[in-house]
Structures are given as C-alpha cells and as structure tokens.
Amino acid sequence: MVANASPRKFRHATMRDFPQMQKIYAHARELMARNGNPTQWGNTFPREEVVRDDIAHGRTMLLVDTVGGHERILAQFALCPGEDPTYQHIDGAWLDNDTYVTIHRIASSGLVKHAARDCIRWALKHYGNVRADTHPNNKAMQHVLETSGFARCGLIQLIDRPTDTTRIAYQRHEW
C-alpha cells in the first residue's frame, strides 16, 4: 500500500468517473496486447456505450483508495445480475443452475497489486455465486480466477462480436 493511502473500498461508478475509467480500459488493452492477448478487447472494447450503460444502471463497481486527499480508481468491473444470454450454451457444464452474478469488463489501473483479485473477493462475499469468462490468451485473468477458487467449466461463444468469440467460462459458488 502507498504511504498515507486510505483503506481500499468499493463504490458504484458515476458518470464523473467515466473519463478515468476510459483511461484504465485503454491501459488494460495495452497491457493485454503486450502480454500476447491483442484481440480480446482490440482497440474498441469495452465499447463506450456499454460502459455508459453499465454506469447508468448501477452495474459498475470501483475499487478506490485516497492518497493526498485525492481518490484513485484502483480497479473497475461490471457486476451483472440475472441470467447472461451468452452463458445459455456452454461446451462443458456449469457447477449449478442457481441464481448468479457475472463479472464482466474487469480492469486494473496498475497502481496497486492484487486489485482484480480484491474485486473478485468482494463479488463472492456479496453474491456467493459468481460466473466470469476470459479469452484463451488472457493468461493473467485465468490465473486470477483459478487462484481465487474458480472452476473452469468449459467454453462459451460470445454473442455480441463478429470474430474471436471463444471464451473460457468459470464459476465459483460459495455454498
């Protein structure tokens, strides 16, 4: 932790956060490309209208702290309740058919270590049954999910993109 940094906390994003969130997504796209995963988000994902919609509907959570009186966004993610249409067909099997939330569009600012893992822990603590997916080339996110106790359930196909749609599907259910 940075000297004089406040404890980390979670809050909902507002439209005031949008410019900084876009910078964090740009950082994440660059990092993915440098680490052998240039196509998961390419240069356009997540799309601006999706991020704005997530904020407007209260789906975007931010992990923040404060340093020198200024709040910093450490990580961000969309937490989507309800059945995800993309997850209806899986080459494999989900752990169960219980109610779940999905983590989408998770990105770290790179300011602190383990920010994505903290986001996942928070989602599990508050919702218990969590699903997520990631690109086969996104080894970093696979590592975070697997070391956070998620089971690899199979493969799904994204329904909102024309190419490069196969994703590894994960689930963890706190019984």
UniProtKB/TrEMBL annotation:
InterPro entries: Acyl_CoA_acyltransferase. GO terms for molecular function: transferase activity. Keywords: Transferase. It comes from the Bacteria. This is Histone acetyltransferase. It comes from Bifidobacterium ramosum.
